[in-house]
Amino acid sequence: MTKIDLTPAFLIHRRMYQGSSLLLDFFTRHYGKIRLVARGVRSNKTALQMFQCLNISYRGRSDLKNLTDWESNDQPRRLLGNDLVLAMYTNELLSRLLPEAEKHQKIFDGYWSFLRIINEQSETEKEYSLRLFENLLLKELGYGLEFNKDSQGKPIDSELEYQFKEDIGFVPSVDGNIPGEVLIVVQNGGDNDLLNVDHLSILKKLNRKRLRSILGEKPLKSRELFFAN
Question: Vertex 221, ends 198 and 74: CA angle to 5°?
Answer without folding.
Answer: 85
